[in-house]
Design goal:
By secondary structure, the protein is of the alpha+beta class. It is built from four helices and seven strands. The protein has a three-stranded antiparallel sheet. Helix 1 packs across helix 2, helix 1 crosses helix 3 and helix 2 runs parallel beside helix 3. The protein is elongated. The chain starts with 9 loop residues before the first helix and ends with a helix.
């Protein structure tokens, strides 16, 4: 009966263990941006609940969906990349507009979090699509490609 129980069964236990391991790495990545002000807490995973509680300062939230847009974005990214690092051998992720909802003050920390994450996970490259980064910004780790001129030429010249 325990093997097929949704609270004690092997699939639920395996999912819970995988997420708990990923949370350790995710919290390390979040420390780069937030210090120790924000962290993912032990997940609640059973037959009826999949919740990822977190703490921000002294406030606790029952799930990441209740965080601000920037908190939810960074919590989800850190956890997603932590999970992905243990589930695949590929090390070149594509991150599309993940910084769109981040406060200007957090964007610097976000780039540093990506750099730390890439080092920690052994990633060699990351493709990041963003309208917020400027050419030369973070030049030691970010290589920008501005395709707006190419798009303008295609629109105007029909090439």
């Amino acid at each position: 009966a325990k093997a097929t129980s949704s609270t004690k069964g092997i699939p639920v236990i395996a999912n819970r263990d995988t997420v708990e391991r990923a949370i350790l790495l995710a919290n390390h990545l979040l420390d780069v941006v937030y210090g120790h002000e924000i962290e993912l807490l032990r997940p609640i995973i059973d037959e009826s609940t999949f919740a990822l509680p977190f703490r921000c300062g002294n406030n606790r939230s029952s799930d990441i969906r209740y965080g601000s847009q920037s908190e939810s974005t960074l919590l989800s990214l850190a956890l997603s990349l932590s999970l992905a690092s243990s589930l695949t051998h590929f090390n070149i992720p594509l991150v599309d507009e993940i910084d769109a909802y981040l406060d200007i003050s957090i964007r610097d920390g976000f780039i540093l979090m990506l750099e730390s994450m890439m080092n920690k996970l052994g990633m060699e490259q990351m493709f990041l699509i963003s309208h917020n980064l400027q050419k030369g910004q973070y030049a030691h780790i970010v290589h920008t490609i501005d395709i707006s001129e190419i798009i303008d030429q295609k629109k105007g010249g029909g090439q």
